Amino acid sequence: MNAPWKANTPGSRDPFAAFICDDAALDVLRPLVVEMGWQPEKCHKGGLRNAVQSLSITASPNILMVDLSESGDPLNDINALAEVCEPGTVVIAIGQVNDVRLYRDLVASGIQDYLLKPLTANAVRDAMAQAQAVFAAPRQSDGSGAKRHISTAVVGTRGGVGASMLATSLGWAFSMEHKLPTALLDLDVHFGTGALTLDLEPGRGLTDAIENPSRIDGLFIERAMIRANDNLAILSAEAPINTPLMTDGSAFVQLEEEFRQAFEMTVIDLPRNMLINFPHLLADVNCVVLATEYTLASARDAIRILSWLKANAAHCQTFVVANKVQPVSQEISKADFEASIERKVSFTIPYDAKAATNAAKLGQTFAEANRNAKSSAVIRDIASAIVGVSEVVEESAGKAKKSLLGKFDLKSLLAKKDKAPA
């Protein structure tokens, strides 16, 4: 864990609680707790095991002091404590083992401080003051981390054009071929197929986030997301279809913020209705992949969505991707389609029903299951173009704002021969 308890989370919780094994330590602690303006009754007898039992049924405090003296395996027991702690809790551990390695391991696991027995008033007072400062401090933003992050939203002009296939395949390509830590967020809360495509159970992470946005922090992300591989984690849901989506969208904004801190790439499978209801979702998105087909309905909706993007998300680099393109005549020709949307199609993916069936049977993304297929090669080209945007952002850090992304000329990245079959 990377200091998960140190992320500040708003909420009405007790300011302090302690679980201490011996009376001598309690005698030192209680007067200092009163001095800090906290309740001395929150100093409980009993160590880490008692803390785990208590916090499994009650909300954890802002600052928690826990005694490891009776623990045979402090690091493992601290992980058990993390499972019941509310996100945002600042933890001070105390113990009898004077070992620099243990101290470093505990701090690395997320503990704020480790105090050695016998306790002294000055050491405890300083530790509590520092913990209070950590909890009260505003969330830090690491600009150096943010400059590397690229967020991509995949939107379909119509249902069935392959937006989810593209989202999962791009997530796989970023994580496996480009070796970039990647988050995949499936925002089709009731009928999403992201987890299903990856042969995973979706879990309750996304629904929990929507119901409790204030709980979202680094530790929540670590627990809620399902790992598909070492570099790819997914957050999705299969919410009951008799439960409407009740949210103001704040959870999605907070999730995007945490993804920027924890990953280098974010892929959002963004249904059209979510685009309409929560337009602020694109505020920090760098690239939009608009999946479409050469049909009259897709042409109409491509025009409408592109117009919306131009007015509301001009900072996004947009890629128009024609999917399921067959060598036989289409409902609309490529030339007519491009004329109607008044721009070129960025990438063309040939229709391959056999490859789609193969991916479904294997429980893998389309690109992973069909690595040698022409259609997968196009998807890898799309991923490379988006990674190219990432490189531009990194090189331009400190010199350009995010809005310049929309103005950057990516023709050199897109100047590839037409991928449609002859």
TrEMBL record:
<dbReference type="GO" id="GO:0051782">
    <property type="term" value="P:negative regulation of cell division"/>
</dbReference>
<dbReference type="GO" id="GO:0016887">
    <property type="term" value="F:ATP hydrolysis activity"/>
</dbReference>
<dbReference type="InterPro" id="IPR011006">
    <property type="entry name" value="CheY-like_superfamily"/>
</dbReference>
<keyword id="KW-0067">ATP-binding</keyword>
<keyword id="KW-0547">Nucleotide-binding</keyword>
<dbReference type="GO" id="GO:0005524">
    <property type="term" value="F:ATP binding"/>
</dbReference>
<dbReference type="InterPro" id="IPR050625">
    <property type="entry name" value="ParA/MinD_ATPase"/>
</dbReference>
<dbReference type="InterPro" id="IPR027417">
    <property type="entry name" value="P-loop_NTPase"/>
</dbReference>
<dbReference type="GO" id="GO:0005829">
    <property type="term" value="C:cytosol"/>
</dbReference>
<dbReference type="GO" id="GO:0009898">
    <property type="term" value="C:cytoplasmic side of plasma membrane"/>
</dbReference>
<protein>
    <submittedName>
        <fullName>Pilus assembly protein CpaE</fullName>
    </submittedName>
</protein>
